[in-house]
What we know:
Elements: H1 6-16, H2 19-45, H3 49-65, H4 69-83, H5 90-115
Helix pairs in contact: 1-2, 2-3, 2-5, 3-4, 4-5
Amino acid sequence: MSIIDQEAINNLNKLGKDSTFTSNVIDTFIKNTPVFLNNIDKGLAAKNPEMLRTAVHKYKSSSHHLGARKLESLCFEVEKLAKAGQCVTPEVLGKIEMIKVETAHAIEALNRLKAGL
Length: 117
């Protein structure tokens, strides 16, 4: 599985009629990523499963639109765990670390992709 699903990028290109729209969506995602990750960390710090669930749900949605499927999947897994009341458990913490690693991979891939638009 590639880091970014090309079909999602193609859909963005069609939606925007050109690569400028896609480039702007990528820029917005990259700009907002620290906010998403900070909100996830706030949910953990507060030991608040609902706050965590909301934060990963929003990041999941943004990841989905850009075709970052692994990142989307990890967010979905944490969302399910948080919905079940889990927050600061080894499983949740491990998956959040994986989200942060996958975020770096996704941003790198998006920057490469954007350079080729």
